[in-house]
Amino acid sequence: MIWNRWISALGLLIFALAWTGCETAGHKPSEFVCTDDEIRVGDTLSISLLDIPEPLTDKDFVVRNDGMVNLPFLGSIKAASRKFGDFERDVQTSYLEKKIFRQVTVLVKPGIRFYSVGGEVKQPGRMTYSGQTTVLRAIVTCGDFTEFANRRKVEIIRANGAREIMDCNKARKDPKKDRPICPGDAIFVPRSL
């Protein structure tokens, strides 16, 4: 009799823990800020050099795995983990300091960026990142959840490898709990049991 109560209590405790899910230790979801104005490895940068004798407009350069890009007359310059505006100013300064041009205006724009949504959504795939968005908006863009989706344990895999679990049911009731999505992030909606 006592064993039955103990086993029942243990079963309820395990069920309660499984029901509530888990968070990454020491990580508060509200702390994450999406920095979509930061250059990342693999990004395509559209760079224009203006106010020079033969302007170079919208030439694409890919940020290599070492974080560098090769620019005309300058060679390799570190781009990854830099803000677009800072990178623009540094490239312009390099051209002027090395006296390659007497005057130059440098414009740097991100190329097309993506995030992906997979698992139990109606139209999974790679989506174009066109500005600030959230997990719920990204899922709606993919046709919304399937009837088999586990909406309480949606996984966000950040471009830097960090992982988060989000309860989309709670986020629909409280928009503050909806997480931002950045370029390169992936969302995975698991199947419910």
Description of the molecule:
The structure is a single chain. With 193 residues, the chain is α+β, with helices and mostly antiparallel strands. The protein is built from 4 helices and 12 strands, in the order H-E-E-E-E-H-E-E-E-E-H-E-E-H-E-E. The chain has a 5-stranded mixed sheet, with helices on one face. It is elongated and about 65 Å long. It starts with a helix and ends with a strand.
Short description:
With 193 residues, the protein is α+β, with helices and mostly antiparallel strands. It has helices at 2-20, 84-97, 135-141, 168-173; strands at residues 44-50, 56-62, 68-71, 75-78, 105-110, 113-119, 125-129, 133-134, 154-157, 163-166, 180-181, 186-189. Mean pLDDT is 85; it is low at 12-30.
What topology emerges from the helices and strands here?
Layout: H1 2-20, E1 44-50, E2 56-62, E3 68-71, E4 75-78, H2 84-97, E5 105-110, E6 113-119, E7 125-129, E8 133-134, H3 135-141, E9 154-157, E10 163-166, H4 168-173, E11 180-181, E12 186-189
Parallel strand pairs: 6-12
Antiparallel strand pairs: 1-2, 1-5, 3-4, 6-7, 8-11, 9-10, 9-12
